[in-house]
Design brief:
By secondary structure, this protein is α+β, with helices and mostly antiparallel strands. The two termini are about 25 Å apart. The chain has one domain. The strands form two sheets. Strands 1-2-5 form a three-stranded antiparallel β-sheet, with helices on both faces. It has a two-stranded antiparallel ribbon with strand order 3-4. A hairpin with a 5-residue loop joins strand 1 and strand 2. About 25% of the residues lie in helices and about 25% in strands.
Length: about 140
């Protein structure tokens, strides 16, 4: 994810920013309808807001933008790396093993939403989630 802190107000603007970052970081276009999964605060203090959408992205075709990092840390040596090195499809139960612990509620919310939709519509087979780090609001 982009380390630039940004202020995003309103769900629509946040979703548009998330769609833009998804394209930048994967090369895929996220097309709705979108299921809003809410937000969680990570241990670092960053707030991550997430949506899910039905899709059929081929992980072998993932192409990410790059970022520069200092490596090894405190070495004053910089290298360029992809922001995303690979993608994969997982069943919900398996996906929990590959995400941050504090993002687990996203999978639970997704499962609840899919269950409620199955009662009304056709089952959605696979979902890909996109995420956006949202900066903390100013305390003044």
């Amino acid at each position: 994810m982009d380390s630039t802190k940004r202020r995003i107000r309103g769900g629509r603007r946040a979703l548009q920013a998330t769609q833009r970052e998804f394209i930048e970081e994967t090369g895929f276009t996220a097309c709705g309808p979108f299921l809003e999964l809410g937000s969680v605060r990570q241990k670092s203090g960053k707030v991550v807001q997430t949506w899910a959408f039905a899709g059929d992205c081929d992980p072998a075709r993932l192409v990410s933008n790059t970022c520069e990092i200092e490596w090894p840390p405190k070495s004053n040596r910089h290298i360029t790396i992809p922001e995303v090195d690979r993608g994969a499809w997982f069943q919900l139960a398996v996906a929990a093993q590959f995400i941050r612990e504090e993002q687990g509620p996203f999978l639970e919310r997704l499962e609840d939403l899919l269950r409620s939709q199955e009662r009304r519509t056709v089952q959605i087979d696979r979902l890909f989630t996109v995420q956006l780090k949202v900066a903390e609001p100013d305390s003044h």
